[in-house]
Amino acid sequence: MTACQSDATTSGTTTGTATGTTADLPAMYKLFGSNVQITIEGSTVVIRVNGVPDHKSPYFGPTHLKYEAYNGSNPAFQLNPNRIVEQTGVFRIPLTPTRQATPSPTPLGPIGVSVNGVPIFNQYAGPNQPLTGEINTFDQYAGHPEQTGVYHYHVEPTYITRTSREALVGVLLDGYPLYGPLENGKLLTSADLDAAHGHTTATKEFPAGVYHYHTTGDAPYINGSGFMGVPGTVSR
């Protein structure tokens, strides 16, 4: 199985709606799109998505209303043979993240979900296989579908960060937020972050400070040595 052959995939649509009596929905979840359904079940945030991005893509196929031919900046772009397929996914994420002494490895397949409901994958195209070649199949918004049609991001989703590269991008399965590569006017690289590709600072949604991840333009792009917190689960 490769990272783009997940059997535990999910994708998303959002309704930033939340229910539950044990806690209020954290502010960051209120930034998720209207096509993503979010609820609180006990100590778990449950995010239900349908795997269809809220932007156009050549991976919809030329007869689809959301089809857009590739118009990005990569001269080596090659359309892969897969097409986006709508499908149900459920992310169960700890409401309150629990820090681990040692990060646990991320799996192939979804490791988190973006604010527009699209799954986030790690830095591998397959077991210990870098994204070197696969990057050339990313569309103009930095995503692509795997063999079963799950559209996903391995790197900074440029549609989400198009208006602000400091924006909240999504959340990983351990409950820690993921932001774009810009922080306080500085464009971050992996060298600015810890082994898990994160650090603790104040953010707009967490002015008192929070551990969070960042996308960067260099590998590992989103996550490094693994989840800093105890991860939740994702299922179809």
Please sum up the structure shown:
This protein has 236 residues and is mainly beta. The protein contains no helices and 19 strands. It has strands at 14-17, 36-41, 44-49, 89-94, 99-104, 110-114, 119-121, 124-126, 129-130, 143-145, 151-153, 168-172, 177-179, 182-183, 186-187, 198-201, 210-214, 227-229, 233-235.
What are the SSEs and their pairings?
Elements: E1 14-17, E2 36-41, E3 44-49, E4 89-94, E5 99-104, E6 110-114, E7 119-121, E8 124-126, E9 129-130, E10 143-145, E11 151-153, E12 168-172, E13 177-179, E14 182-183, E15 186-187, E16 198-201, E17 210-214, E18 227-229, E19 233-235
Parallel strand pairs: 1-2, 13-17
Antiparallel strand pairs: 2-3, 3-4, 4-19, 5-18, 6-7, 6-12, 8-9, 10-11, 12-13, 14-15, 16-17
How would you describe the overall organization of this protein?
The chain is mainly beta and 236 residues long. It has one domain. It is 0% helix and 31% strand. It contains no helices and 19 strands. The chain has strands spanning 14-17, 36-41, 44-49, 89-94, 99-104, 110-114, 119-121, 124-126, 129-130, 143-145, 151-153, 168-172, 177-179, 182-183, 186-187, 198-201, 210-214, 227-229, 233-235. The strands form six sheets. It has a six-stranded mixed sheet, with no helix packed on it. Strands 1-2-3-4-19 form a five-stranded mixed sheet, with no helix packed on it. A two-stranded antiparallel sheet has the order 5-18. It is globular. The model is unreliable at 5-23 (pLDDT under 50).
